């Protein structure tokens, strides 16, 4: 048994040594070192390549189309490097593993050694005991007695030995188990080693592959670099040649520029010169400007002075012209006659009735608007006035002939417009008109307003209106608070010789509305004062006195013009038989005042030294407006009706006589006689006698008329 154990022990020792040699820790370590060296070499190479790469990157070929590719390759390289790194890491891992395993192996070996040592010790001990036992056996054999005894003891002791053997056997068993286990471990480790070797081979292959790839990439890169280099060189060459060409062109240009420069130099010189002169001018400019300003100022002030003097001259001329105009106007009016006589024939109305009485007795001359024919008692009598308005003449047409007179009032002239004629002949219609168709009064005021407005730029005008009535030689204010009060006509206390009526109400008017109010007011007064307005109005003179006062703002010139619009009392004869009391008195007053008016006009036209203004209230009141360069218009109203022909005849005779009064011998001749009274106008009325207070002789109207007409004709023909 011991022998077999020994054999087994030997075998195991051999096995252990074999295993140890086989384990080849050294081989793996060598391999690992080799790999590490290889790794190091690769690393070095990589570093060198990287250096190269960096160098190339630092000197990159600009505009190189391979840059992109290069970048890609670099990317690939870095990828490969990364992979190599990974592999390396794995290699390190594996190295670590191998190390661990080697450590474990060393441990196991150590344990194995220990157990072997133990076994050897045990064997030693056992062999010693065996020897002891054998010696003992031998000694015993030599000492049979003793041996017997000893055998006996051995036999006794052999049980003990047997037990020890058993123990040793069990121990051997245990050790064998241990060895089996160790073998198992060894096997495992071998397997592990194999697998690690396999992995190592794989890794090596991979590394080889990577290396090949790296090599390839390196080669490719080198190729690329070479190509890039070539390209770069090519580009450089090309650029060089191009630059040479360009250089040549630049040289040529330079030559051209040089020649240009040569030609430009004189221009530059002139420019510099100009610039210098400009600079000088700029420097001198303020002075020059001041000078110019001074002279301009002087010129302007001179011009202003000139304009001033021209203005003064113009103003002087304007004033002279104004005066001249006035003079011319006066002359014109004088030539036309200060006193003009118009006739107006009203249309036949319903009031004229029907039948032969209402037949038309008035006809007109188609060629001459100043001529009118009246059929009276079968005879046609013709009259020539300044103008005749037929029945169809409108208020407007009439006013058109009058408006020149009205406007002259603005220039400071006094104007009188009388409406003369028998009651019902249209006096009030002509002067006042109707609301729908106003007469001269309203139209005149409207015209004055518009004229004044037109002159408002230079003139300030005020227009005032008074309304008065003369009845039975008594003057009454129609706009006053006490219409019954009789007003007196007085001389102005300022010694100007002007007349005025103290207490006569004056209204300032500025618009048509104002006039209407004034007229309405006057009317109401008149209506409330008498029972029969028509009758009353036909027996009184109604006056509308318009005063226009002007101030020329530029010259300070003041003007005052008066427009007297008079609606006279009816001129019809009042039958003396039967007329008594107040009726007779009225008739006498009317006759007196109308004759006085005729006398005054006659005296004025014939330039008599004495004009009998004081013979009636009317003429006395209108004295200022009748004398001097005043203008008078007598509008003689007639009815065309057959029944009114004798009155019409009287009125027309009155008109013609007023008009035909001429200057010169006739007027001187006429100076002796007075104006024919109302009674004398009724030339054909039998048994007529002058009324009380009217006893002056006068030439027959017929004589006067025909004579004056012949004289006028003479004047006309002689020019
Ligand atoms: P007088 O004032 O002379 O007495 P009126 O002016 O009162 O006369 O006129 C008498 C009538 O005749 C009135 O009804 C008036 O309307 C009318 N009449 C006068 N003249 C004209 C005319 N030209 N056109 C139309 N009607 C007129
Ligand atoms: Mg009337």
Automatic annotation (TrEMBL):
Asked whether the UniProt record includes RNA-binding among its keywords, one would answer: no
Write out the annotated subcellular location: Cell junction, Adherens junction; Cytoplasm, Cytoskeleton, Microtubule organizing center, Centrosome; Cytoplasmic vesicle membrane
- Note whether Translocase occurs among the keywords: no
User: What membrane topology does this protein have?
Assistant: Peripheral membrane protein
Q: Where is the Kinesin motor domain?
A: 338-661
Q: Where, by residue number, does ATP bind?
A: 421-428
Coiled coil ranges (UniProt) are: 2-143, 186-238
UniProt GO cellular component terms: adherens junction; centrosome; cytoplasmic vesicle membrane; kinesin complex; microtubule
For this entry, list what GO says about its biological process: microtubule-based movement
Key words, A-Z: ATP-binding, Cell junction, Coiled coil, Cytoplasm, Cytoplasmic vesicle, Cytoskeleton, Membrane, Microtubule, Motor protein, Nucleotide-binding, Phosphoprotein
- Please give the InterPro entries that the UniProt record associates with this protein: Kinesin-like_fam (IPR027640), Kinesin_motor_CS (IPR019821), Kinesin_motor_dom (IPR001752), Kinesin_motor_dom_sf (IPR036961), P-loop_NTPase (IPR027417)
- UniProt lists compositionally biased (Polar residues) regions at 700-709
Biased composition regions of type Basic residues, renumbered to the chain: 710-719
In residue numbers, the region (Disordered) covers: 670-719
Q: Which domain of life is it from?
A: Eukaryota
A Pfam family assignment: Kinesin
Picking any one GO molecular function of the record gives:
microtubule binding
Protein purpose: Minus-end microtubule-dependent motor protein. Involved in apically targeted transport. Required for zonula adherens maintenance.
- Family the entry assigns: Belongs to the TRAFAC class myosin-kinesin ATPase superfamily. Kinesin family.
Q: What is the official name of this protein in its record? A: Kinesin-like protein
- What species was this sequence derived from? Molothrus ater (Brown-headed cowbird)
Q: Which gene encodes it?
A: Kifc3
């Amino acid at each position: 048994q011991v022998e077999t154990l020994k054999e087994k022990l030997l075998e195991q020792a051999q096995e252990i040594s074999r295993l140890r040699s086989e384990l080849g820790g050294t081989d793996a370590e060598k391999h690992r070192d080799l790999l590490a060296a290889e790794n190091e070499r690769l690393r070095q190479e990589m570093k060198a390549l990287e250096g190269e790469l960096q160098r190339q990157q630092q000197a990159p070929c600009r505009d190189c189309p391979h840059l992109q590719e290069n970048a890609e390759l670099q990317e690939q390289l870095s990828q490969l490097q990364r992979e190599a790194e990974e592999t390396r890491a794995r290699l390190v891992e594996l190295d670590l593993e191998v190390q661990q395993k080697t450590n474990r192996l060393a441990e196991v070996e150590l344990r194995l050694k220990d157990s072997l040592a133990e076994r050897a010790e045990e064997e030693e001990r056992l062999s010693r005991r065996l020897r002891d036992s054998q010696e003992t056996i031998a000694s015993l054999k030599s000492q049979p007695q003793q041996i017997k005894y000893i055998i006996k003891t051995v036999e006794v002791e052999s049980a003990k030995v047997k037990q020890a053997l058993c123990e040793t056997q069990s121990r051997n068993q245990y050790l064998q188990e241990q060895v089996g286990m160790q073998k198992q471990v060894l096997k495992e480790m071998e397997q592990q080693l194999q697998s690690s070797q396999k992995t190592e081979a794989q890794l090596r292959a991979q590394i080889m592959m990577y290396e090949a790839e790296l090599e390839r990439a390196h080669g490719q890169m080198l190729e690329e670099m070479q190509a890039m280099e070539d390209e770069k060189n090519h580009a450089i060459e090309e650029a060089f040649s191009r630059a040479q060409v360009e250089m040549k062109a630049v040289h040529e240009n330079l030559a051209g520029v040089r020649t240009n420069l040569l030609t430009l130099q004189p221009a530059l010189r002139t420019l510099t010169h100009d610039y210098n002169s400009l600079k000088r001018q700029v420097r001198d400019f303020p002075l020059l400007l001041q000078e110019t300003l001074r002279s301009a100022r002087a010129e302007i002030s001179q011009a202003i002075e000139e304009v001033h003097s021209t203005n003064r001259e113009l103003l002087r001329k304007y004033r002279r012209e104004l005066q001249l105009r006035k003079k011319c106007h006066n002359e014109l009016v004088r030539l036309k006659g200060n006193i003009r006589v118009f006739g107006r024939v009203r249309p036949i109305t319903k009031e004229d009735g029907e039948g032969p009485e209402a037949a038309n007795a008035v006809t007109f001359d188609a060629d001459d608007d100043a001529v009118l024919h009246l059929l009276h008692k079968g005879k046609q009598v013709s009259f020539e006035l300044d103008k005749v308005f037929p029945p169809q003449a409108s208020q407007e047409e009439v006013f058109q002939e009058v408006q020149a007179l009205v406007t002259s009032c603005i220039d400071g002239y006094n104007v009188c417009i009388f409406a003369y004629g028998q009651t019902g002949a249209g006096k009030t219609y002509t002067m006042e008109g109707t609301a729908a168709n106003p007469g001269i009064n309203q139209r005149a005021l409207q015209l004055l307003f518009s004229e004044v407005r037109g002159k408002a730029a230079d003139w300030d005008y005020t227009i005032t209106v008074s309304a008065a009535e003369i009845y039975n030689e008594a003057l009454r204010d129609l706009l006053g608070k006490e219409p019954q009060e009789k007003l007196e006509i007085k001389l102005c206390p300022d010694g100007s010789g002007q007349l005025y009526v103290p207490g006569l109400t004056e209204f300032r008017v500025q618009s048509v509305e104002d006039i209407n109010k004034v007229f309405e007011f006057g009317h109401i007064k008149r209506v409330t004062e008498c029972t029969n307005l028509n009758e009353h109005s036909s027996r009184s003179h109604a006056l509308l006195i318009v005063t226009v006062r002007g101030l020329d703002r530029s010259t300070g010139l003041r003007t005052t013009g008066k427009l007297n619009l008079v609606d006279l009392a009816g001129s019809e004869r009042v039958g003396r038989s039967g007329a008594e009391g107040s009726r007779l008195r009225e008739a006498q007053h009317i006759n007196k005042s109308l004759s006085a008016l005729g006398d005054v006009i006659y005296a004025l036209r014939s330039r008599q030294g004495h004009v009998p203004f004081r013979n009636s209230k009317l003429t006395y009141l209108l004295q200022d407006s009748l004398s001097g360069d005043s203008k008078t218009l007598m509008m003689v109203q007639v009815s065309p009706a057959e029944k009114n022909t004798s009155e019409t005849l009287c009125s027309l005779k009155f008109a013609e006589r007023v008009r035909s009064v001429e200057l010169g011998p006739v007027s001187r001749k006429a100076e002796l006689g007075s104006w024919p009274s109302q009674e004398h106008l009724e030339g054909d009325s039998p048994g007529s006698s002058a009324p009380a207070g009217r006893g002056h002789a006068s030439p027959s109207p017929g004589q006067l008329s025909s004579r004056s007409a012949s004289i006028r004709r003479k004047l006309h023909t002689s020019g």
